[in-house]
Amino acid sequence: MAKFTILVSIGELARTAATSSQEARREQMRSLVGSSGWPHGGLLITSVDAESGESRVWTAADGIPAYLAVAASTAVPGQWYPKPPRAL
């Protein structure tokens, strides 16, 4: 089975699982990471697109708060809903 096929299958399971609310996840990450921006301009935060299985690297240049990139990066399939940072 191809790498992307496996990742897409995991993403499908994650998207259909009963999970905690997106608001709870957003608030948890905001309290852990803070909401004052990116701590370092060179920080790279990785995640995997739950629909395509492709890797993504988030940076300050993407225009989203670091805590949302961390939320995407640490989404555990079946526990936290895999939502792109722009939608969190």
Low-confidence stretches: none
General shape: flat
Biggest beta sheet attributes: 2 strands, antiparallel
Query: Could you tell me how far the N terminus lies from the C terminus, measured between alpha carbons in angstroms?
Result: 31 Å
Average pLDDT score:
79
Radius of gyration: 13 Å
- What's the total helix number? 3
Helical residues, percent: 25-40%
Secondary structural class: mainly alpha
**What percent of residues are in strands?**
5-15%
Give me a quick take on this structure.
With about 90 residues, the protein is mostly helical.
Secondary structure: elements and pairs:
Blueprint: H1 3-16, H2 22-33, E1 45-48, E2 55-58, H3 66-73
Antiparallel strand pairs: 1-2
Helix pairs in contact: 2-3
Written description of the protein model:
The protein is mostly helical and 88 residues long. The chain has one domain (3-87). It is 39% helix and 9% strand. It has 3 helices and 2 strands. It has helices at 3-16, 22-33, 66-73; strands spanning 45-48, 55-58. A hairpin with a 6-residue loop joins β1 and β2. α2 (22-33) crosses α3 (66-73). The radius of gyration is 13 Å and the shape is flat. The mean pLDDT is 79.
Labels describing this entry:
88 residues; mainly alpha; 3 helices; 9% strand; flat
